[in-house]
Amino acid sequence: MDNKMFCYQCQETAACKGCTVKGVCGKTPEVAAMQDLLVYVTKGLCAVTTMLREEGEAVSGAIDQMISVNMFQTITNANFDQKAIENRISETLRIKRSLLQKTVGRANLPEAARWDGGRDEYAAKAKTVGVLATENEDIRSLRELITYGVKGLCAYSKHANALMQTDAETDAFLQKALAATLDDKLSVDDLVALTLETGKYGVQGMALLDKANTEAYGNPEITTVDIGVRSNPGILISGHDLKDLEMLLEQTKGTGIDVYTHSEMLAGQYYPFFKKYEHFAGNYGNAWWKQKEEFDSFNGPILMTTNCIVPPAESYAGRLWTTGAAGYPGCGHIDAPYGEVKDFSPIINQAKTCQPPQEIETGTITGGFAHEQVFALAEPVVEAVKSGAIRKFVVMGGCDGRHKTRSYYTEFAEKLPKDVVILTAGCAKYKYNKLNLGDIGGIPRVLDAGQCNDSYSLALIALKLKEVFGLDDVNELPIAYNIAWYEQKAVIVLLALLYLGVKNIHLGPTLPAFLSPNVANALIEIFGIAGIGTVDDDLKLLIG
Ligand code: SF4
Ligand code: SF3
After folding, report:
1. What are the C-alpha distances in Å from 508 to residues 16, 411, 493, 513?
2. Of 187, 216, 245, at which residue does a domain stop?
3. Closest ligand to 28 CA?
């Protein structure tokens, strides 16, 4: 076998098996290799920090944050910049070198913790440390399931960190979990237990981010968002980082530039804090994978604060900017340490030279149904369930993607009986949020809580309903789960739902390639996880 690379971490992996020549996402073998090495040295650093904690030594917050950003950089579509990734490897090795000296038991650490090397050695080392370095396919599957869940958790931690919120327990856990994926002594059973524990910290990590977001910006509230355009030049902000949105809105005040949200940043529109900015325009476009056409017609600069970047067309590459964990070679990157203001003036100056956005849609969409807003509506919702006006809820959150098979989700939403309400979060909603599915006695049939991390809200809503209806088990609720996944944030959301005891989740459009047949069977047996079938069959199965 002569693979140029091997990556199977996302739903769009080649032939549902693995990208071996070039990523379907556009990742080159060289970038894939450096991401493999970054994951490896970060796991090595985690083995060191975990040992230090066990030996009673403190680990600084700066190191916790570095580990989260390292893992975030390797999430699908986050960072395509080989140099930036190599710099992270060098910096990680530098930090590890000094920490290693402080450990008493360093002779017992795994090879990843002790390995060191110069840049000229990175490529050769990367070849030996990728996913396929673990031979047993079940151990490999569980190691990767944990690693991908932790990547998602790191992304959410990073956003909370940007708002100066941290949770030392979650950081210690995620580092312990990454270190454990290097440990050849752990059995399949040990790794299964660690997978479930990762879900527990997934809940904790999403709770931290929810607290960070709502303390800074208020609780999301019902909001009608314009999807048309205004007449000023604009800046389009995409991704998940609300702190970046705040800084951009602050710096564009009074400049004659409007700020529009794209894809996952749509949720920024729902927070009360951002409504005071008059130049905060509507949402432009759809989910991440449509950006090639939409970024072209937007005409102004685009700021990617996180995943998901599609390799840009020449027509707008000069207008694409990145920040934080995101990166693309040749595109401008703006950053600052946590707690400091990023200087977005190069983007603002560029916007002043650009034409206003070209209109691609008109109308509005409604969202903002995170936990507090839904709790405020609890009475009519509960009444509607009791009277039978609402027969069922179906959670259709998660990710969107470019595969044609994802039209399943549009069709599923369209064909749902009129007494069923969709609960959603993440960019999966773009498959049905413009269908005008109507309302049930004033309750919209699509309740959008926000970003993928706001799946936490959906869990709180389910727990609240369980309490109101006096049920013992969350699975007794009239809620079905038909979740779409694409990248690793969806993996931590899935593990969090499993930890909360949710059963019979349908996951599509395909099951993860990184689940070995045995691991997939275990998930099916223990949790009733299933793939998707035809729309009509699944409607019968899930709705009845
Ligand atoms: Fe392939 Fe997905 Fe990995 Fe990209 S992230 S290389 S598409 S598996
Ligand atoms: Fe979307 Fe990437 Fe996953 Fe955050 S933006 S849900 S795909």
Report:
1. 12, 14, 14, 12
2. 216
3. 1
What residues does 261 pair with on adjacent strands?
A: 237, 283
With respect to residue 443, please indicate whether it lies within any of the assigned structural domains: yes
Above 80 in pLDDT, residue 534? yes
Global pTM? 0.98
Q: Is 253 found in the same domain as 181? A: no
Residues 483 and 513 in one domain: yes
Q: Taking a C-beta distance cutoff of 8 angstroms, is the pair 528, 503 a contact?
A: yes
Tokens at 182, concatenated: 């290097």
| Residues 169 and 287 occupy one common structural domain | no
Which atom of ligand 2 is found nearest the CA of 307? 2
The average confidence (pLDDT) of the chain is 97
Joined together, the tokens standing for residue 37 give 């090495």
Which residue's C-alpha comes closest to atom 3 of ligand 2? 399
pLDDT at 2 over 90: no
H/E segment holding residue 138: helix 137-162
Query: Residues 265, 213: contact at Cβ < 8 Å?
Result: no
pLDDT > 70 fraction of the chain, expressed in percent and rounded: 100
| Residues 207 and 232 occupy one common structural domain | no
Q: Which ligand is nearest to the CA of 24?
A: 1
- The β-bridge partners of 530 are 506
Q: What is the largest CA-CA distance in the chain?
A: 69
The single residue listed with the structure tokens 């405020």 is 376
Full domain range(s) for residue 400: 374-542
Burial of 338 per CB tally in 10 Å (0-12, 13-18, 19+): middle
C-alpha–C-alpha distance, residues 225 and 246, integer Å:
18
Distance from the Cα of residue 340 to its chain's centroid: 24
Whether 339 is in a domain gets the answer: yes
- Tell me, yes or no, whether 358 lies in a domain: no
Task: Give the distance (Å) from ligand 1 centre to CA of residue 360.
Answer: 30
Tell which residue, 258, 320, 263, 322, has the closest CA to residue 288: 263
Domain total in the chain: 3
Query: Would you say residue 1 has pLDDT above 80?
Result: no
| Distance of CA 258 from the midpoint of ligand 1 (Å) | 34
**Residue 289: exposure state from Cβ atoms within 10 A (0-12, 13-18, ≥19):** buried
Task: Please compute the mean of the pLDDT values over residues 95-103 and round it to a whole number.
Answer: 97
In a domain, 366, yes or no: no
